[in-house]
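I'll show a record.
***
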Amino acid sequence: MTQTALPDFMVIDDDPVNNKICSIIINKQFPGKQIDSFTDPEAGLAFITAKYAVADTNKVILLLDINMPVLTGWDVLDRFGKMEDSIRDRFKIFILSSSVDHYDKQKAKNNKLVSGYIEKPLTIAAIKSFFEE
């Protein structure tokens, strides 16, 4: 897959160390690829609304933590679900969480906005799975 054919990457996680790990792992697989990271879910949602309201923006792989203070990943998904189809259709969302709780995994599986559940830390194998249908 060529660099230009790649989607954008975004991480929303309140842990800056995890965001850095994600950037390192993604850049190992796709050197130089831009990754937008947010430790504040509100800022991430505002960025999505502003940037992806434009018709000619790329597809995006979003890595979303679920256990965050103030707005959880579930809250982010609720708000994301209320966005315009033109925005939502650009995103492929993966939960990236340290939670091994079966309930969280099942809830993610049942959410039509979620493409998969990945246990932290992010790995090269997980990145490769993003491109499998």
Remarks:
- Helices lie at 16-29, 41-51, 73-81, 85-88, 102-110, 124-129.
